[in-house]
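Project channel, design review

CF: Before we commit to the Nitrosomonas communis constructs, I'd like one complete example in the thread so the newer folks can see what an input/output pair looks like. Taking Acyl-homoserine-lactone acylase.
RD: sounds good, go ahead.
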Amino acid sequence: MLSACQPVQPPTRIHSSPEILWDSWGVPHIVAHNDNDAFYAFGWAQMRSHADLLLKLYAVARGRGAEIFGEDYLPADRSVRILGIPGLAEKWYREQDVAFRANLDAFAAGINDFAQQYPQTISDTVRAVLPVTPQDVIAHTTRVMTVFIAGTSECGAVIPGFDFSDQPAASNGWALGSSYSASGNAMLLTNPHLDWRGLETFYESHFLLADVNLYGTALVGSPVLQIAFNDYLGWTHTVNTMDGCDLYQLKRAGAELDDGYLLDGITQSFTVTREIIQSREQDGSMTNEVLLIRRAKQGPVIEVDDQILAVRFALLETPLLAGMNRQWWEMGHARNLEEFQDVLQGQHLPLFNVVYADADKHIMLVYNGIIPVRTTGDAAFWRAPVPGNDSNLIWSRTHSYADLPKAIDPISGWVQNSNGAPWYMTMPFLDKSLYSPNIAADVTNNRELRGLKMLNAYQQMSYEELIAAKHSTHALVADQLLDDLITAARESNSQLLLQAADILGHWDRQYLAESRGAWLFGMWFEKWLERTIAKATVADPNYSFTPDQLVGSLFYTQPFDATQPLTTPYGLADIPLALLALQDAASELQATKGTLDVAWGEIARLRRGKTDLPGNGAGTALGVFREIVYEPDEDGKYKSFSGDTYIALVEFSQPVRAQVLTTYGNASQHPISEIGSQLPLAAKQQLRPAWRMLDEIEANLAMREILRRQ
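CF: and here is what came back for Acyl-homoserine-lactone acylase:
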């Protein structure tokens, strides 16, 4: 049954040629008569906004980054070749249905035509990547998803160029149903947290076609929107806790690697191929490297120290990923829950929770992904390298849509995820015993626990309250630990600790720009973690820290308890150690800044290009829902580099109401990058309206392009 919404634009207002209306925020509104023209215009638009970045990403997806950009790209090139991504892209391009293959062709054509008409906008070095092929598009989107899978599993540590070395991917996603929403309309919170640079850069865009009005965002280089909403429904993604890659520790059959490996007691030979990787030297000359690629039954082989590891990615071992981009496009054209679930059952998306809401007042969260069916072992077993000599551990099937944890219209009236286990998607929690013991890691984090507390603080939530919750900078960790810390500090004989206790006692427990005490608490927290981890390592040299331990007994007297999710964890596990950490933090802050009550925004800065503003928000570990992560800058302050990226708050009213923000702006290419900086809005914790109707778009027009396809 379709909702009562009507298309917002009559087809007669759509131009016969594809047209891009660029608004004052640098967002391209693509008005097209058909899908093929829309894909062409999307390729064109991405080049105008991000040409250098897009072409560089495609070069790396070919496994040829070093050939153009130098030896720094060699590790990623080797990994791309070892995993066989360019070959898979060729194969999967041939397997596309005729219509969608033509759409990929059109996207690549838009890229190339822009480059031909505006070569001066592209850096000289990057221009060598041209022309782009549709196979490049598939290779790039495949590599991006492989990086996500590697970075959220044990495989990222052994595959160079395929890990989230600076900041793990994270997100918040909520869907509020009619019983919980104050207006009675379903609402959707979209809030991915990714690195603000390179591979994970989002591109906000809008497609206005005769059959759909689709608004959302895509990672640069993607031919389709990956998070979006239309007049009838919308979805967002959060990175989930699935394990889509396994490592197998192979046993040599002889002294030399070429002697093969043992499987079920029988010697097996590696399949060996040879590739040449070229690398550009600083003087412009080229060197050649011979890369031997060995493949075992489990997958390609990586040598790490004295270990021989086979790597098995579910998304690369099945044909499902070939349909990924098409599935996202079809999700954007669905009009109700039944159609949307029909699309999801294709199982082409390799990971991500799907958080959904619609105009028919339905909400849903699906723990989604291409997840291996492993017939033995729990999640912890598969997170470590498993024996490579047992063929029973080589999985070949993946879980069906019916197997996946999900909640549809739960009694709580809401679903949520902030990168925790699927059991915590609504309350009461799901019964994890109903699912395979290795389908998900059983973890949560303080940012997710903060979200659960906010959702449980309301019987109903309004649109305005949803916006306020999204921007909350309250530190849950302060509620859990600060009283213990202040009491202990006030009982000490140290004047510095007494002064620190006074500052922390007056702190508002927020990470707003003006919050005084936030920086002291954050420094204490980092030093407390360092001292606690060091203590655990001394006690057990084999100890290995993982982020999920941050809500456990190592740090808290009462660790997280799933039966008491709104009140646990709490209490300092080691008060003397905490006081030593506070002494360290206060001494350092006094020495470097001359005061303990420095405001958060004096040091934490929202910086992008020439923009430099007081920051707000902090990281997951502190239990702050408004995640913005900062790193040291050259002037001794800290600059934003990760966290809140694209934000959308959508109410499925009539008409749809939506406010959005792409925190760091919608372009990296001069001169369009100068249009509509959005960091000033982020500094004020403000959003802006999503313009989806021609009249409002044209009222805020910065540039119009009518494209004449060549």
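RD: helpful, thanks. Residues 1-11 have pLDDT under 50 and may be disordered.
CF: The longest helix spans residues 35-61.
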